[in-house]
């Protein structure tokens, strides 16, 4: 038998090591952490198409829309709110904007509007009939990107960096690239930290040739170091007299990160290092595809360098995927802008051996209706549909060519099992090695989590 005194004496070094690791983790909130389970995916690239992508014009082939084109659609069952009202009101079914064809060994139907993505479709796993809890853009965007319809919750990227840290301490762990044409709905809150410590919020990179401003210092590195040391000392003196210092500690850490980035970031954003063949793969030789192509290429360079989570936003202002009218002319433009860049990203990741360790997610905040209630226009569009979203994933831990869920004949909602968006979130966490029920944060007396009341991991699309 070992006495308590002897046990403590023999193990004091181990206990001290545990205490030291906790102190280091507090001092370095983005230090790499051990996942809850072994997982292939180490980084995530989240492609968010803002405005509500029309599923029946991209990935959800419905011959009934052709058969019933121009006619009144039967009232949608098992729906509430706007969808139930709109489907019961006078309407007309709109056929797909472009033909669909089957591609790959999976024989999956893809619109002719996405020929490049069609060539990669066997690498993708589809989830059909995803439901968000609101039919309006703002709450739906929040719900898809933070798990809650109201602002103030932590975004997916913040949760992942909170749970896993990052693999490169000289670059932000969570980077966001927005659309060059304007701000996203919800602004910075859709990549914010919410109630998590401020260190986990996303860092926004600008569009254009200078994603990061002021990278070239006016002072020498030695002079900057002395300046930062003084500033850090002053901030620490200020923090020592207070209890709620999370924001200040994050600001101190951001100054230190900015200092380290001056040596690493210029190389990261310098696309001149890439071959002409790679640039062409992403569509950088075409004015239409170049903006999103640059974002996708930068995303690959980021995960290559150990950035944990990269969020790409496409669609802003009048150029969102919010095609209430004239969908026949608008959606081909949206698809053209992203088709080659996203396909190029998947192909490039795969060729470099990075796809196995990178989870790629495509999502929007909602789907669209198969009908239009405006019977007077000759350029109809599609309205909001919180029930019909299509989400796809590819890469680390995902089963290539898998499909889960199915919508009804008119692509209004799930034909059988409904897929709440929290199930998508649970699946993302699982693919990254995190247990949704263990990834929690105590806030306002309650343990918060991304999936709130809990989601079902869609194991049918996991390898």
List the topology elements.
Blueprint: H1 4-27, E1 43-49, H2 63-67, H3 81-88, E2 92-93, E3 100-103, E4 108-111, H4 115-118, E5 124-131, H5 137-146, H6 156-164, E6 174-177, E7 203-205, H7 221-240, H8 246-269, H9 276-281, H10 290-304, E8 309-314, H11 327-351, E9 358-364, E10 367-368, E11 371-372, E12 384-385, E13 389-395, E14 403-404, E15 419-420, H12 421-431, E16 441-443, E17 446-448
Parallel strand pairs: 1-8, 1-9, 5-14, 5-15, 6-7, 6-8
Antiparallel strand pairs: 2-11, 3-4, 5-13, 9-13, 10-12, 16-17
Helix pairs in contact: 7-8, 10-11
What does this structure look like?
By secondary structure, this protein is α/β, with parallel strands linked by helices. The chain has a single domain (29-215, 271-461), classed as Alkaline Phosphatase, subunit A. Helices cover 35% and strands 15% of the residues. It is built from twelve helices and 17 strands. It has helices spanning 4-27, 63-67, 81-88, 115-118, 137-146, 156-164, 221-240, 246-269, 276-281, 290-304, 327-351, 421-431, and strands at residues 43-49, 92-93, 100-103, 108-111, 124-131, 174-177, 203-205, 309-314, 358-364, 367-368, 371-372, 384-385, 389-395, 403-404, 419-420, 441-443, 446-448. Strands 1, 5, 6, 7, 8, 9, 13, 14 and 15 form a nine-stranded mixed β-sheet that branches. A hairpin with a 2-residue loop joins strand 16 and strand 17 (446-448). Helix 7 packs antiparallel against helix 8 (246-269) and helix 10 runs parallel beside helix 11 (327-351). The chain is globular. The termini are far apart. The relative contact order is 0.21. Residues 12-26 have low confidence and may be disordered.
């Amino acid at each position: 038998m070992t006495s308590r005194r002897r046990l403590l004496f023999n193990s004091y070094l181990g206990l001290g090591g545990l205490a030291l690791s906790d102190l280091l983790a507090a001092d370095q909130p983005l230090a790499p952490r051990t996942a809850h389970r072994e997982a292939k995916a180490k980084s995530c690239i989240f492609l968010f198409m803002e405005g509500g992508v029309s599923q029946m014009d991209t990935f959800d082939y419905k011959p009934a829309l052709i058969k019933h084109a121009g006619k009144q659609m039967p009232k949608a069952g098992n729906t509430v709110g706007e969808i139930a009202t709109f489907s019961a009101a006078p309407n007309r079914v709109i056929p797909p904007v472009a033909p669909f064809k089957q591609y790959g060994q999976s024989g999956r139907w893809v619109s002719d509007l996405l020929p490049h993505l069609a060539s990669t479709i066997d690498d993708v796993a589809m989830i059909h009939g995803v439901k968000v809890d609101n039919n309006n853009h703002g709450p739906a965007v929040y719900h898809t990107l933070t798990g809650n319809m109201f602002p103030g919750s932590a975004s997916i990227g913040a949760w992942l960096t909170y749970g896993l840290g990052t693999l490169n301490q000289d670059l932000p762990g969570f980077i966001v690239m927005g659309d060059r044409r304007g701000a996203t709905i919800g602004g910075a809150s859709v990549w914010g930290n919410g109630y998590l410590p401020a260190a986990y919020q996303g860092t926004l990179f600008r569009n254009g040739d200078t994603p990061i401003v002021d990278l070239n210092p006016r002072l020498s590195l030695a002079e900057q170091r002395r300046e930062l040391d003084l500033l850090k000392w002053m901030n620490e003196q200020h923090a020592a007299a207070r209890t709620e210092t999370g924001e200040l500690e994050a600001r101190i850490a951001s100054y230190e990160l900015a200092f380290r980035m001056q040596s690493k970031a210029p190389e990261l954003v310098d696309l001149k290092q890439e071959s002409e063949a790679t640039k062409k793969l992403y569509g950088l030789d075409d004015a239409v595809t170049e903006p999103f192509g640059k974002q996708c290429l930068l995303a690959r360079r980021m995960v290559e360098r150990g950035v944990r989570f990269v969020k790409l936003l496409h669609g802003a202002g009048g150029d969102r995927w919010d095609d209430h009218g004239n969908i026949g002319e608008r959606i081909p433009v949206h698809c053209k802008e992203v088709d080659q860049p996203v396909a190029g990203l998947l192909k490039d990741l795969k060729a470099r051996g990075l796809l196995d360790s990178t989870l790629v997610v495509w999502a929007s905040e909602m789907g669209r209706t198969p009908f239009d209630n405006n019977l007077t226009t000759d350029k109809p569009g599609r309205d909001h549909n919180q029930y019909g979203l299509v989400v796809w994933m590819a890469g680390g831990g995902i089963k290539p060519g898998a499909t889960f869920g199915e919508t009804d004949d008119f692509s209004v909602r799930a034909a059988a099992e409904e897929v709440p968006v929290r199930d998508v979130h649970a699946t993302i966490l699982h693919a990254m090695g995190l247990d949704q029920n263990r990834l929690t944060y105590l806030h306002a007396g309650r343990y918060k989590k991304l999936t709130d009341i809990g989601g079902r991991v869609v194991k049918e699309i996991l390898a």
